[in-house]
């Protein structure tokens, strides 16, 4: 049995409304459909979208960490420079 929510689930929108190459919003990481239908979704659907957003964020962080490891510990703009 699903526990009802006592509070509405707020939109994850942060006001950065621009699509990336995969079609996800750069600000909140929702797809076009997820943004379009947010107000009509049930609480269960909104929770599922929030879980998907967490997965998308962790995937982006993993890629960023892997890219940082490729550069080593120095900042990319300072690599090879000694001043």
Describe it for me?
With 83 residues, the chain is an all-alpha fold. Helix content is 41%, strand content 0%. It contains two helices and no strands.
Largest sheet: none
* Rg: 18 Å
| Number of contiguous helices | 2
Fraction in helix: 40-55%
What is the general shape?
Answer: elongated
Structural class: mainly alpha
Oligomer: single chain
Low-confidence stretches: none
The counted number of beta strands is 0
Which H/E pattern describes the elements? HH
Give the CA-CA distance, first to last residue. Answer: 63 Å
Kindly report the average pLDDT value.
86
Q: What portion of the residues fall into strands of 2 or more residues?
A: under 5%
Pfam families: DUF1289
Summed up:
With 83 residues, this protein is mainly alpha-helical.
Highlighted features:
DUF1289; 83 residues; 2 helices; mainly alpha
Describe the protein's topology:
Layout: H1 32-36, H2 43-71
């Amino acid at each position: 049995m699903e526990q009802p929510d006592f509070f509405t689930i707020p939109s994850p929108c942060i006001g950065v409304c621009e699509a990336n190459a995969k079609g996800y919003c750069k600000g909140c990481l929702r797809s076009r459909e997820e943004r379009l239908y947010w107000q009509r979704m049930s609480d269960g659907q909104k929770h599922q979208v929030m879980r998907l957003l967490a997965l998308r964020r962790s995937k982006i962080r993993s890629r960023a960490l892997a890219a940082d490891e490729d550069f080593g510990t120095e900042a990319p703009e300072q690599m090879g420079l000694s001043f």
